[in-house]
Design goal:
By secondary structure, the chain is an all-alpha fold. Helix content is about 60%, strand content about 0%. α3 crosses α6, α3 crosses α7 and α7 runs antiparallel to α8. The longest helix is centred in the middle third of the chain and has 28 residues. The radius of gyration is 22 Å and the shape is elongated. The protein starts with a helix and ends with a helix.
């Protein structure tokens, strides 16, 4: 997004991943063309709004209470994308060949573009140096292009929807396993006994919070000395009586807003 390049924001805030499963990406363009043939013009409106939301800062601030830019709202975009593309699964065999070839070309082009931009960010932005992969982004892009080609060929050759479902499950499971491994490698694993300043202090804080909730069952703003760089999930871990945010400080004045 533009925030990653020009906003100089932290990596974890805005360098979010809008990666979707390759079959879903290949299904999107034929699904879009079919919607146009059926005169479902609302699809155009939704697509334009999604692109606007992705490429402008507004949603990154709005979905984090205008306190800081944050990209996790893109989960909404991904689930919408997968849902729309998934509607095409049983119609894919009936689509004209030009939509399938065009879809493949678009996915390959976007994959190459993403790889070039990823390498550019690593080379030019200090926020991304710590996340440099084992191989260059160019190398990863080459591997990804080969995989996209293999999936496209298999999806093109399959004629029966039932068989396509089985292959689709295999591809999704394979990609989910790979992405899970890369995520763990990139974010590391920590011990729950030492996380957030240690298990003992968190157990004590949890007991305190339970006593507070017994006396006051409303929403409230809470702070503890455990709240530091390693305690960003403190509110979720220790059961503050507030909204599901990283930090219950965002519950400020919630009682008043809750009355509307």
């Amino acid at each position: 997004t533009p925030l990653t390049q020009f906003g100089n924001e932290s990596y974890d805030n805005v360098a979010t991943n809008i990666y979707s499963y390759v079959p879903m990406m290949l299904f999107f363009f034929p699904a879009f063309v079919r919607s146009m043939k059926e005169k479902k013009w609302s699809v155009i409106v939704a697509t334009v709004l999604m692109l606007f939301a992705l490429e402008t800062p507004f949603c990154y601030y709005m979905f984090f209470g205008f306190t800081a830019p944050y990209g996790r709202w893109e989960l909404f975009f991904i689930t919408s994308f997968i849902t729309f593309s998934g509607l095409e699964i049983d119609h894919y065999s009936d689509e004209p060949k030009w939509t399938k070839f065009t879809s493949y070309g678009l996915v390959i082009s976007l994959t190459i573009f993403a790889g070039v931009m990823a390498q550019h960010l690593i080379d030019t932005n200090d926020n991304f140096i710590q996340r440099s992969p084992y191989i260059s982004a160019y190398g990863a892009t080459a591997v990804m292009c080969l995989y996209v080609t293999a999936v496209a060929v298999i999806m093109f050759l399959i004629k029966k929807p039932e068989k396509r479902h089985s292959w689709l499950m295999c591809f999704v499971a394979f990609e989910a396993a790979i992405m899970g491994f890369l995520t763990i490698e990139g974010h590391w694993c920590g011990s729950f006994e030492s996380a957030n300043n240690g298990l003992f202090y968190n157990n004590e804080l949890y007991k305190v919070n339970q006593k507070i909730k017994n006396d006051d069952d409303s929403y409230y703003r809470c702070w503890s000395y455990l709240q530091n760089e390693s305690g960003r999930n403190d509110g979720m871990r220790n059961d503050y009586n507030g909204l599901g945010c990283f930090h219950s400080i965002y519950n400020f004045n919630l009682n008043k807003s809750d009355t509307f």
